[in-house]
Amino acid sequence: MADNKQKIGDLSVSPLSLGGNVFGWTADEAESFRVLDAYAAAGGNFIDTADVYSAWVPGNQGGESETVLGNWFASRGNRSEVVLATKVGGAPERRGLSPATIRAGIEDSLRRLRTDYIDLYYTHYDDESVAVEEIATTLDALVKEGKVRELGASNVSAERLDSFLAFATQEGLARYAALQPHYNLVSRDTFEGPLADVAIRHGVATVPYFALAAGFLTGKYRPGTAVDSARSPRAAAHLETERGRKVLAALDEVAAHHGAEPATVALAWLATRPTVVAPIASARNLAQLPPLLAAADLHLTPPELDLLTSASA
Prior knowledge:
Elements: E1 6-8, E2 11-13, E3 17-19, H1 29-41, E4 46-48, H2 64-76, E5 83-88, E6 90-91, E7 94-95, H3 99-113, E8 118-123, H4 132-144, E9 148-154, H5 158-171, E10 176-180, H6 194-202, E11 205-206, H7 232-236, H8 242-258, H9 262-271, E12 280-281, H10 289-293, H11 302-311
Parallel strand pairs: 3-4, 3-12, 4-5, 5-8, 8-9, 9-10, 10-11
Antiparallel strand pairs: 1-2, 6-7
Helix pairs in contact: 2-3, 4-5, 5-6, 8-9, 8-11
């Protein structure tokens, strides 16, 4: 993977963020360690998780991914080499963004991650019952206490994001340096438009999640093909749409020209979009990792970018 680090505030991050949603879910601890080791060995330093991962799995409570990562840091002694992102506000016992919830949430995360600071701390889901001024003040205190280095927001409206940034700037508080929206070739209106405009206007770095549309953009979903994946129903649904079929055809064409995987092309396209610094993609085993890492080294031509952008319109 190319060593072309990107900036999120004062953080220098790899151009691919490794998604931790699979750790403790579809990847057990041993396989998670293998994926993490390979990502780090390839020069990757930006890992994304959340307190809620993976509470949706029967028998899990949330925090499983953070626990796996904490064990990995402890066994490898490499915490200072990683830019670690996690999130608050989505776990079953820690929903919302009240000051008490944020305070309790970060202590839970720090304990599971076996660290005393978070590099990038996201509000996972906006909580409109709490004023942006109160959220901003609480998060700023965490930065001043050294528990958080940079702040981010996910699943937030353009209006609330703009209000937060304006207030933080006016009051001299820590402001959101990153935005994590749902964004990929088959889901563009979840970011493009007012939300993207706010990110551009305020210079906020974008770190898209669902960068591969739950696996659809890997190209493994085809008519008449069954895929063994926990996310199969969501991904396969894109085959039923005209956009999904057009995007798949465009990916195949560009991938064939480069001798690359569709996933590599999809991530490379996303990385060229305004404000995007590092798409998030996860690998539940070692075999899934190389096409993700290769995206940083794939340079798409203007005609190829136009083809993909048109197909996804």
